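Write out the 3D structure for:
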Amino acid sequence: MRWTPERLPDLSGKTYAITGGNSGLGLEAAKILTKKGARVVITARSPSKAKEALETVKAHSPGASVDFVLLDLSDQDSVKSAAEALKTACPKIDALINNAGVMQPPETRTKEGFELQFATNHLGHFRLNSQLFEHLEANAARIVPVSSIAHRMYRIQFEDLQFEKKYTPTDAYAQSKLANLLYGFELQRRLAARGSKVVSIPCHPGYSATNLQSAGVGQEGGSKFYRFLYGITNKIVAQKAEHGAYPLVLAAADPTAEPGAYYGPTGIGQARGPVGKSHVDPRALDQDVARRLWEVTEKLVGPFFPS
């Protein structure tokens, strides 16, 4: 499969919500979707950056319908407020793309005491999807967890999930991206068991040049070493952010996308190349680990499905 956005049908009347849509992959996905006629609502932590993104999308797709909702995924109160705002802004949501993330920041704890990467990349999206579940169910929506080739670099460290004993930025990031994929597959199994109309379709962008690497490794104060390293590799190895967004759009909007599949680049190392069904590391297929992660996550942020 060599998927490109030209395969998309007209998306007029469709609405897509994208976390972290103010830059990088989320912004590129918004541009592609609006170009096909869809309405897009992005979330962002910064109103000013979100407004700049809206202007960029409108310049790319004149007449585009695009809005934003304030969201900080590392803050559980913000997640709850954003979910309510998204319900108001979007009478229906056809797909919710779990794109936002932070990568390799200095050790940081959220106000709830969670490690920042696990809180933002996994816990925040789990809670947001949960808060929106009935709204998504009413519209037979798709949930699109965005993982990474980094998912194969570590494991779920249940004995020290929040890296309180020893914090390693890269290991913590890899754990969070493995969590995204384990969650995406487990979510689909649970949705199917419930007979839900909602489906989960995970994906990853390969190695794409975005400000996740270049603008402070995910946040202000990121490692100078990583900024230097990615400044080089982004130029010689990475693909354009637009191409990295293709798997997100495929999973969210292509009628042929399969529930429970994993879409991304299929070239060497799945870093770039033709987009299709991508490689999954065996540790992401461990259903026992996935069930345990789900149970632990519910203990941390509450049950996923309404009782």
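The two ends are 40 Å apart (CA to CA).
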